Amino acid sequence: MKIIALSEVPHHATQITDWLWQAFGDGTSREFYHSIVRSSLNGADFPVTFVALDGDIPLGTVGFWRCDLISRQDLTPWVAALYVEESARGQGLSEALQQHVIAFAAERGYDKLWLWSTFGGYYERFGWQYQCDALEFPDVRVKVYSREL
């Protein structure tokens, strides 16, 4: 298994878009997720989408985003859109994807990362520290976490 930037394997962009829309797109159009994935192929600093591959089969994805929570635009950068294909869950892939973004951010000189979740008790296992509650647009209460790099 390897984790690489989606820009190196852009033929997987449709699969990543579908995963994100199905996992996180409640009330949001597929086009919204397509635009995020498409913009991560441009080589800019943000967003960057990573994909975990077994050979050329995608198993999961994670993003490195400037902002993932409109109500907390003062915080940056973010681990975002972490998704692991159901058949690949329980094998440490979520942690590997998180660690990949952590190393990526540290290489670029960042000293802290952020993420949010609608539930608690999961990310703490990987060293994330709960910081506060916040609102995901328009009115979903979420938990905000940070991790020192």
Structure commentary:
The mean pLDDT is 96. With 149 residues, the chain is α+β, with helices and mostly antiparallel strands. The protein has a four-stranded antiparallel β-sheet, sandwiched between helices. A three-stranded antiparallel β-sheet has the order 5-7-6. Helix 1 packs across helix 2. The protein is globular. Helices cover 25% and strands 34% of the residues. Strand 6 and strand 7 form a beta hairpin.
Percentage beta strand: 25-35%
Helix tally? 3
**What is the helix content?**
10-25%
**Secondary structure: number of strands:** 7
Element-level helix/strand string: EHHEEEHEEE
Report the span from N to C terminus. Answer: 24 Å
Mean pLDDT: 96
Structural class: alpha+beta
Biggest sheet, strands in spatial order? 1-2-3-4
pLDDT below 50 for ≥5 consecutive residues: which ranges?
Answer: none
Overall body shape: globular
What composes the largest sheet?
4 strands, antiparallel
Rg, Cα atoms, Å: 14 Å
Entry keywords:
single chain; 149 residues; alpha+beta; 4-stranded antiparallel β-sheet; 3-stranded antiparallel β-sheet; 3 helices; globular
List the SSEs and their pairings.
Elements: E1 2-5, H1 13-24, H2 30-39, E2 48-54, E3 57-65, E4 78-84, H3 93-107, E5 112-117, E6 129-136, E7 140-148
Antiparallel strand pairs: 1-2, 2-3, 3-4, 5-7, 6-7
Helix pairs in contact: 1-2
Short characterization:
This protein has helices at 13-24, 30-39, 93-107, and strands at residues 2-5, 48-54, 57-65, 78-84, 112-117, 129-136, 140-148. The chain has 149 residues and is an alpha+beta fold. Helix 1 crosses helix 2 (30-39).
